[in-house]
Amino acid sequence: MPDRSERVYSLFGTDVHEWAFSNGFRLVLIRDRDTTRKMGMVTIKGGSTTPFDLQDTHRKHTPPGLAHFLEHILFDREDGKAHAKFAACNALSNAFTSYVSTAFFFTTIEEYAPCLDILLQSVLESNFHEGMVRREKEVILQELAMYEDDPDYMTDLAFMRRIGRVEQGDIFNILGTRESLATISAEQIRSFHESNYRPDRMLLVMIGDLEPEKLLEQVVSVEGLMAPTGETLLDSVLPDCEERSEPYQGEVEIGMDIGQQIGRCGWQLPLDGAKAVVTRKLAAVQVLLEAMFGRFADLPLRLEAEGRLVEPLEVRTELLSDRVVVILETAGPEVTGIGDEVLATVETLTRTGLSESLLEAARNKLYGEWVLMYDDMPNFLYEFSDLLIRGIQPADFIEALSQVRSEEIRDVLAELTKERFLSVRVTGRGDGEA
User: Which residues make Cβ contacts (< 8 Å) with residue 92, sequence separation at least 6?
Assistant: First the structure.
């Protein structure tokens, strides 16, 4: 059994136990004594931008959609589907794939131990064969057909393809393409599993009124989880985060059969340096975005008053391996030119500065959202795990949200340059750009 270290700390008045094993595996228990629910989530550091083995680090041979395909097939075993096994234990389960990770979780009010066994066995076993692959292809093709008609999904994909500036643009297509799905084989799935579903790329987070010793005893007894692991160099296959080589040329327009316009605009910013530096920069990014584009900021209020938005301006970030992508979502009868107005807002605030009262309000709001999120256990569990699998301590990040300095926020504002900016718009008029 590998050596392990343990630390215990408090988060929102709840004890958090965190174990780090010498083989790289990490286990976290958020011991919430005030709930009858138990939840568990395994997160794998391997998503749509991850190559399937060390020989394909430039992503020349990894078909788009492979990580998502594996997510599907792991819950479809010869001895029955994992969803049915969870249901037999009075538990709900789900799984999802992102650009850099894949997560599997369950929730139950019954005994958690059988559910945890099902979860870990489903993730660790790799007995794939071509019959399973053929069967699952039909399911994923149906899912793909649904998303190809989803303007939000297609707008996100168009934005990420262009702002990522990667030759293999379809790595941002989490579901893959019809062409790539046709080429996926059991051998490729096994290779991706062997390269990424390893203890050193795996995180298990549990929430509930659980005994730490009992949980630890069950986890260390799982076959394969405590095995030593060799060195791995796998990570996302993205180029260095630099200023865009081409000048900003306004919006990219894409035609779809929709009754309104949908837009995405934003920047990608590098996240490099020590973890403490990355944590504080990410907090500064979040506070700045809330101050500039939050629900009651000047630009969103004006766009709504003018009738150009049918939904509030949404701001979100995609945290990749070495960068954060800032995305502003717009939807309305006429979103043309909003990207230019976003840039104008940034230029104005760069000259005039952001008021301390506005920044303090943004800090307090974001910290408060994490406090409220704790009552939404599935969402909290995902956000907590999403930070931790990237090496960012959630407690440190939450603290940084309330303490990040104004000069750190101004440094981020200076990075929101026109050269790093991109705007994509989906319109129902004309064919646009495919």
Answer: 86, 106, 107, 108
Helix (H) or strand (E) holding 397: helix 394-403
Buried b (16+ CB within 10 A) or exposed e, 39-55: bbbbbbbbbbbbbbbee
What is d(CA 281, CA 28) in angstroms, rounded to the nearest whole number? 25
Beta bridge partners of 103: 43, 96
Query: pTM for this structure?
Result: 0.91
Say how far residue 385 (Cα) sits from the centre of its chain. Answer: 10
Residue 422, token pair as written in the block = 């991109």
CA distances from 108 to 112, 113, 120, 257 (A): 7, 10, 16, 41
Report phi then psi at 33, rounded to 5.
Answer: -80, -5
Q: How far apart are CA 257 and CA 357, in angstroms?
A: 44
**Neighbouring C-beta atoms of residue 422, cutoff 10 Å:** 24
CB-based burial label for 261 (10 Å; 0-12, 13-18, 19+) = buried
Are 160 and 172 spatial neighbours (Cβ–Cβ below 8 Å)?
A: yes
Q: Count of residues for the chain? A: 434
Query: pLDDT, tens digit, for every residue of 193-231?
Result: 988 999 999 999 999 999 999 999 999 999 889 888 765
Neighbours of 69 (CB within 10 A): 25
Decide if pLDDT at 55 tops 90: no
For 261-296, give the DSSP string: EEEEEEEEEE--S-HHHHHHHHHHHHHHHHHHHSTT
- Do 279 and 400 contact (CB within 8 A), yes or no? yes
d(CA 275, CA 405): 17
Separation CA 193–CA 428 (nearest Å): 41
Type of residue found at 1:
M
Structure confidence at residue 307 (pLDDT): 92
pLDDT digits 0-9 by tens, 273-304? 899 999 999 999 999 999 999 988 999 999 99
Local structure of 38: helix, strand or coil: strand
User: Cα dihedral sign for 257, 259, 265, 271?
Assistant: negative
Q: Identify the bridge partners of residue 427 per DSSP, sorted by sequence position.
A: 255
Contacts of 431 (CB under 8 A, 6+ apart): 255
Is residue 69 within 8 Å of 189, Cβ to Cβ?
yes
Cα distance between residue 146 and residue 150, in whole Å: 7
